Amino acid sequence: MLLRRLWDMFSIPMMALVDADPHGVEIMTVYKFGSRALAFETCYMAVPSLKWLGLLPSDIESIGIPKKALIPLTKADQDKGAELLYRPYMQHYPAWKLQVEYLLRTDKKAEIQSLDSIGPSFLSEVYLPSKMRCCGWI
Q1: Which residues cross the membrane (predicted)?
Q2: Tens of pLDDT along 61-75?
């Protein structure tokens, strides 16, 4: 509710920074579209303008996260990813769908803290400023 209230009151852009895994994507979809369990309260809780800033599955390769920092998808991850692809809203967000498909195809996930394997301040001093400067969200 807090994010929705901030968005309603100040019209500030909302960005999601989540793990590049199916569960991170699902958490982000709850913020954007609302929870299926609380569907009757979606208009009070969801932030429809939410953008996916990162960690995008396609960022894993493009920014050079070391292979040792990547984690193979579990069966639960694969099932969650496949299920996400068939949610109705994914048809309206093809860039999001492509990211989930990329994740399933590469069979690797990365947590936000995997960016520390590039450098201890990579997230705050390189990744996020670059994404914001280049409008690198979807």
Answers
A1: none
A2: 999 999 999 999 999
